[in-house]
Amino acid sequence: MSAANMTGRTLAMGEDEASDGARAMVDAPFGKALARVAKDDPSIVGLTADLGKYTDIHPFRDAFPDRFFNVGMAEQNLIAVAAGLARTGKTVFATTYGVFASRRAYDFAAIACAHSDVDVKIVAGLPGLTTGYGGTHQAIEDLALMRMIPNLVVIDPCDAVEIEAATEAIAAHKGSVYMRLLRGQVPAVLPADYKFEIGRARHLRDGTHVGIVSTGLMTERALDAAAVLGKRGISVGVLHVPTIKPFDAEAVVNFAAGVDHLVTAENHVVSGGLATLVAEALFDAGQARPLTRIGLPDRFIECGSVPTLQARYGISLDAMIERIGSLVKVAA
Amino acid sequence: MLRNSPPESADIGELKRRATNLRRHMLTMARGQGQGYIGQGLGMADALAALYFHELRYDPANVTWRERDRFLLSTGHYSIALWAAFAEAGVLPVEELPTYGADDSRLEMSTLDTTPGVEMIGGSLGHGLGQGVGQALGLRLDGSGARVFVELSDGEMQEGSTWEAAMSAGHFGLDNLVALIDCNGIQADGPVVLDMEPVAGKWTAFGWSTQEIDGNDMEAVVVALKAARTKGGKPHAIVMRTLPGKGVRRIETSEKSHFFRVDVGQWDGIIAEFEKSLEPAA
Question: I want to staple A212 with a disulfide (CB 3.0 to 4.6 A). Which of A94, A133, A135, A222 is the partner?
C-alpha cells in the first residue's frame, strides 16, 4: 500500500475508542460515578498502576487525593495491595489495562482477591479490540480468562449509562469484580432509566428472524444493525448480557426460543467468552442449534487504526449488518 | 492474654520456653502426617514465639479485633509453624494439632484463610508483602496504631512481585510495616538456587530500614523487633538467618530439610531425641 492510500491512524493512549455513532457522549463516566459513590462511602479507595490518566479514575483522584494511591508500573502489586486494603475494610477500585489485569496479575486476581473473597473491583481499560496498539494492549481473551476464576464477577458494560450504573452496583456488591472499561468520551446508548443488575440480561429489542445476544460495546452495534436490517424487512431482536459471570442462562434460553437464527456479538475472541457461554446455556437446556458467532478470531491482532481493524475482523457495524443480513432471505 | 502494646522488657527465658513448646507442637503435627515443612517451621519457632508472646498487639480470644497487629505468613507451606503458635497462644485447641494435614482438618498444610487468625491465603509465593503493604496503607488511612508483620523467605525473594511490593512500601513510607525475611538457605530444588546475597543490602537499597540477625537467637530477635517500632517513615526489614530444623539434630543435618518425610513410627524416635536434648547436661 502506498503512503497516499494509508488512511487509518493508530489511536494514541488516552484517545477515545468507543465513539462511532451520533449519540450523546459522556466524559469519563466511570471516574465521575466513582467520585459520586465515594462521597457517601468513605470506605472506597482508588488505586492505579501508572495508568490513572488513561483509566478515567482522575475525577476520583481529584476529589479524594488522600484515598488514592498510584503503585507505579507493577500490576501484580496493584492487585495484591488492593487485596490488603480490602482486608482492612476498604472497598478498593484498582485500575489498569485489561491485558495487565488478566494476563499479568492473574494469580493475584484469583488468590488474593476472588479466593480471599475481598472487596476488590478491578476496572480494566482497553477491552478487546479498542486500541490499535497490537497484541500487547488488546485484551481480546480477558473475559475467557477472568470468567474461569471462581467467585469473581465479570462485567462488560455497553455504554456510559451502564458504566455509571454498574460502578454503583459493584461498589455496593460484596466481593471481587472484574469490569471492562470504556473510557474517555463514551456514548450514551441505553435509555436513562435503564436498570443494571449484576447477573441479569436485558431484553432491549423484540425480533423474530434473528436474535442477537450481545455484550459490551457490541450491544450498541447490535441495536444499530437491528434498526438497519428492520428497514429491509428483517426482524432482529437484541438481548444485552452485561454480566459474563454470573451468566443469565435462563434469559438466553428464553430469548433463543423466540427467534429463527441466533447470533452472538462480542468484542472478544469467539472462544471462551460470550459465544461459548451461550452455547453452553443452550446445550444445557437441550436447545442445541446453529449459532453464528461474531467476534474476534483466534489470533493476535496487529497494530493499526481501530476502525480498520474492527472492520477487518468483522466486529464493525457494517460487517455485522452484512453477516446477519446474509442469514435471512426476505421476499423483495 | 490481650496485649495493647509490647512490654518494655522481655522475659527471654519465658520466650525460649514458648519456642520449645512451638517445636513440640510442630513435631506432634508432623507425626500425624509423617511429613511436612517441619524444617522451616522449626527454624521460625523463635521468631514466632517472640511475636505471639511479646511483640504483637493481639487478643487470642478475639482474632478479628480491629486494633490487632497483623501477622501475614507469606510462605503458606510454613503453616505448621502458624498452627503451633495459634495452639500455644490459645487461638486453637492443642488437641486439634494431630489433625494437621488430614482430610477436613482446619489445619491445612498450606494456609487458607478459613482457619481463625489467618490474615491471608499463603501458598502462592510472592503474595504476602504486597498484601501487607495494602493492609499497612489501610490501617494508616484509619489512623490505627496497629502494625503489619509479613514473614517471607529468601527463596521467595526470587518472586518479582516481592520487589514491586518492596518499592511501593518504601515509596509510601510505611513505618507500620515490618518484613521478617527467613533466610534459611533452602528452597524446593535444594540450597537456594539463585544467589540472593547481599540480602540486607537489597532491602536497604529499596528504602527500608534494615537489620540482620541470627533468627534463632531469642535475645537478638526481641531487640530487632523493638528497633522496628521506630516511626521514621521507612518500612522495616529484619533479615533473620535461621537454621532449618533448628532444635532437632536429625532434621538440622538432613539434606532434605525443605520437605521432610520419615516413615510412620519414626517420629516417636525424633520426638524422644528432641525431648532428651532439652534436658540439662548431667
Answer: A222
Which of A77, A88, A115 lies nearest to residue B121, judging by beta carbons?
A115
Nearest to A244 by CA among A266, A220, A274, A269: A274
**Residue of B131, B141, B171 with shortest CB distance to A83:** B131
Cell numbers at A2, concatenated: 502506498
Nearest-angstrom CA–CA distance, B23 and B84:
8
Q: How many CB atoms lie within 10 A of CB B90?
A: 13
Q: Which positions in chain B touch A86 (Cβ < 8 Å)?
A: 134, 138
CB atoms within 10 A of CB B175: 20
CA Rg, chain A, in Å? Answer: 19
Q: Are A174 and A17 in contact (CB under 8 A)?
A: no
Instruction: Tell me, yes or no, if the pTM score tops 0.80.
Output: yes
Q: How confident is the model at residue A1 (pLDDT cuts 50, 70, 90)?
A: very low
Total number of residues shown for chain B: 282
Residue A104's nearest CA partner among A58, A156, A51 is A51
Q: Give the amino acid at B275.
A: E
Question: Residue A108 and residue B161: Cβ atoms within 8 Å?
Answer: yes
Sign of CA dihedral B183, B184, B189, B194: positive
Stated as kind and residue range, the H or E segment containing A25 is strand A25-27
How would you classify the pairing of strands A91-97 and A120-125? parallel
Give the pLDDT confidence of B158-194 residue by residue, as tens digits.
999 999 999 999 999 999 999 999 999 988 888 878 9
Q: Give residue for cell 547436661.
A: B281
ipTM: 0.94
Peptide bond before B198: cis, by omega within 30 degrees of 0?
yes
Q: DSSP string covering A103-159, please?
A: IITHHIIIIIIIITT--EEEEEESBSS--SS-TTT-BSSHHHHHHTSTTEEEE---S
Q: Compute the nearest-CA separation of A117 from chain B (Å).
A: 10
Taking a C-beta distance cutoff of 8 angstroms, is the pair B58, B69 a contact? yes
The CA distance from A128 to B145, in Å, is: 44
A272-326 per-position pLDDT tens digit: 999 999 999 999 999 988 999 999 999 999 999 999 999 999 999 999 999 999 9
